[in-house]
Amino acid sequence: MNRAFLSVLGAGAWGTALGCVLSRHGRPVLLWGRDASVMATIAKKRRHPRTLTEVPLPRALIPTTELKEALSVPLALVAVPTQALRGLLESIRHLSPLPALLIACKGIEKHTQLFPLEIAQEVLPRTKRAVLSGPNFAVEIAQGLPSATTIATRDFAFPWLEPLASDIFRPYLSDDPMGVQLCGALKNVLAIACGAIAGKGLGESAKAAALSRGAMEIARLGERMGAKTETLLGLAGLGDMTLTCMSPKSRNFSLGYALVQGQTLAEATEDGRKTCEGMHTVRSVSALAERYGVDMPLCKAIAQLLYGGVSLETLLKRLMRRPLKQETIEAKPVETSRKEVAWFQNLSFLQPI
Description:
Elements: E1 6-9, H1 13-23, E2 29-32, H2 36-45, E3 61-64, H3 67-70, E4 75-78, H4 82-92, E5 100-103, H5 116-123, E6 129-133, H6 138-142, E7 147-152, E8 169-174, H7 177-199, H8 204-225, H9 235-246, H10 251-260, H11 265-268, H12 277-292, H13 297-307, H14 312-320, H15 334-345
Parallel strand pairs: 1-2, 1-4, 2-3, 4-5, 5-6, 7-8
Antiparallel strand pairs: 6-7
């Protein structure tokens, strides 16, 4: 009889890491994966044969290839790539009852520009759902190093936090799913930018500038999409952006680095075998920026770096030579601001008597 309260759907690096941290104290956790040989190796050797290979997996982490078994729990974490999320949810929609789903995917669906929770709403509208996002490297989570994350939902009644909380993993609750998902997706685009800057040896100042200006672009789009600006200051925002954009351990950072070192996109992603959500997100965010009428020059530049055949040097010159603006979400041109100040100062009631 299955005694597990939790399961993880997806046995890649991130899903396996989540399974590790949740089962580390002896609580049974089901780990579902499609590849029978991988799951058999985990069961026999307590090691993943393809990822996190040096991390011993807890005995309480129970591998399975049976999707129905993995869904026979109150709460299932979904840790597949965003581009595979719809297919997985479609494959389980006929099952009943379904557990609450905690979606641990970051990104935007390529052809629809939908975020993970929006995909779940389309496919499984009656299922309880939330999203998990934060500054969490899979290998560190799997090793049991301390970390924190954010769970965003409008359903505070469901016990989202308690089953995940431990002395090495601390979740926080947010009522801003859109802001959390937006930060989790766009930080991957910023990481590509920072990796490219590092690859060209342009210095720490340039990386910091890209990170901060990119954060302003996220805030600008988020404001139009109903997100809370304060989410940018939290774990899913500042925390995840700092982690992903400043560390060579980040896949998206490594992608940007490899591209300016001369590798093609196919080579840098091992012909698609290496998941780098930022390469998909950058096209989607360009479409969203156009839809909402938002100026996002840095994200646009990364799209041109990846798909437009434009060099980093050319893109940098274009960015640096843009009209001067205020450092605000509205990004008013400096000349417009000067005229507004001059008009205000010339009002008669402000003149000295």
